[in-house]
Amino acid sequence: MPNIILPMSSGRTSPKELDLAIDAFNHRNRRFGVKVRKQKTHETRILAAAVGLPLLLAIILFLPPVATAILFAAACAIGAYEMLWRTGILKRPADKRILCYTVLMAVATVLWSWAMQSGRLTGEKAWLAALAGLFVFFVALFCELLAAHTALSFTSLFAAVFSGGSIR
């Protein structure tokens, strides 16, 4: 399969060029022995957007603010999962616990933000809750680092901290 170079002058690529680039990427990965999962086609992306966008707008516009917070918390949880597990930063079966801690931290960050903005947590209580959550998160990650001995890299651990606290 020929190498595909996408035109960068216009800043836009057509759906056909995007599908060709995905096929070329998968071909390269197969050649080097990387397990390739089926990529989404352009039609699948359009269908997901056609269903998801009206649902997203309905949640944001018609439901109470807590529903929007829950929606964004779920989006942050998915983002943390995609960043750590799907990219292969965390690979070992034991790393699933770190992934769970990180997803919970991403959700908690959004919910703390919502609670402070809605007035449910104010002043010192808000900061105390945030610091307690961060402390528990760091202690859990430190315990995982100690339990893994040398099998867990510091880079993977720092990626988990980044995903849990700053995905949103």
Brief descriptors of the model:
single chain, 168 residues, mainly alpha, 73% helix, flat
Instruction: State the share of residues found in helices, binned by percent.
Output: over 70%
Strand fraction band? under 5%
Rounded mean pLDDT score: 77
Contiguous runs where pLDDT drops below 50 for at least 5 residues:
none
The radius of gyration computed from the alpha-carbon positions, rounded to a whole number of angstroms, is 20 Å
Oligomer description? single chain
Q: Name the structural class.
A: mainly alpha
How many strand units?
A: 0
What form results from the Cα inertia axes? flat
The largest β sheet comes out as:
none
Q: Determine the N-to-C terminus distance.
A: 39 Å
- The run of helices and strands is HHHHHH
SS summary, helix count: 6
List the helices and strands and how they pair.
Elements: H1 15-31, H2 42-62, H3 65-86, H4 95-118, H5 123-148, H6 154-166
Structure described in brief:
This protein is mainly α and 168 residues long.
Describe this structure as you would to a colleague.
The chain is built from 6 helices and no strands. By secondary structure, the chain is an all-alpha fold. The longest helix has 26 residues. The model has no long low-confidence stretch (mean pLDDT 77).
